[in-house]
């Protein structure tokens, strides 16, 4: 066991030593796949991109396909606590031993490649190759693959999806993807394949870009929208119930009307369920997979997606959410007001420095009676000072801390002392992962993760 642990530590150390990308192209990951004897186009899959919602949609789709009796793979990013979360088969994360074996077997090839090529292989490209190799070795029937960033030049785009999903698009990663919705939509539309359908919840300028790209490639566009857009959407949805017991939506199309339920919390999950439902019905309708409505219902109900309105403690109430941009913050704010009305919220907030900190915190801070500003334990973190200055503009009490452990301890103590007090952690998935790791180890916080996980 010690040897396996040492191998995994060595694999992670190697991954984290890889240089960041200066220029994105698909050639390095294609070359790595060849070196590892991996044919990425041999993995039957769908690709999912979008500014928000792609992880939840991936969770719904994978769970439903598995409920239909297929062996599934899923690739996501980033992880919350452990790298193995990124790669799973049949809902179970890759073992540390398998992850380490694939990485360490590729180590010499990656190092040699980086020494001899101007475009070096990055951590994400290595992770992607690990996922594809593991899926092929595990002989999965179908893989659900989440794009890391953008689409056109993302490492996952070396695959050959039978269907593509583009959830919603807003301004994010503008330095890499472009400074307008149209430019970002162009990058994300790069996952569309000739003659293969694309499912999207986009509207306006983003939808126009996607429709143009689809037309050029001879693709059907299936649009998903809220009920008020039923006349222009192929699938429309209505929120039926959003409570702490789960989320229910009604989805209508020319195929009829169906009721969908999930244990995942938040009004935004109604949209995510509708997008996933449209994709699953298309996969079934075109004969790619046989997925009954019963399998979809079971899969949605059993879907798990940590770090999104996740309740991890009840005394006091502690909720984690990975909202890290303007649209995500708006969705979170709407759900918090609906689910936790009357609560006095202690907001523990940390963000990445390349995000729109001021606007995002400006949406989240008014939810709270007090804000606990912190840096995230990641090299791209915004400072606590930047978070606190953004929060003070909302007129709330703001405290600065040097670490998540200190802030969480203070916020929990404050929430416990107040009637209707609760802790909300938001601003970054990296922060959510850091908090989950803290809770798993108690870290002097007086809280056992296993006792409080819901």
Overview of the structural elements:
This protein is α/β, with parallel strands linked by helices and 454 residues long. It has two domains: 2-302, UDP-N-acetylmuramoyl-L-alanine:D-glutamate ligase (3-Layer(aba) Sandwich); 310-452, Mur ligase, C-terminal domain (Protein-Tyrosine Phosphatase, Chain A, Alpha-Beta Complex), CATH 3.90.190.20. It is built from 16 helices and 17 strands. It starts with a helix and ends with a helix. Residues 442-454 have low confidence and may be disordered.
SSE layout and pairings?
Elements: H1 2-17, H2 27-35, E1 45-49, H3 54-67, E2 72-75, E3 87-89, E4 92-93, H4 96-116, H5 123-138, E5 142-146, E6 163-166, H6 174-177, H7 181-188, E7 198-200, H8 204-216, E8 221-226, E9 235-243, E10 246-253, E11 256-262, H9 268-285, H10 293-302, E12 310-314, E13 317-320, H11 326-339, E14 344-349, H12 357-364, E15 370-373, H13 384-392, E16 397-400, H14 404-417, E17 421-426, H15 429-441, H16 449-452
Helix pairs in contact: 1-4, 2-5, 3-9, 3-10, 4-5, 7-8, 11-12, 12-13
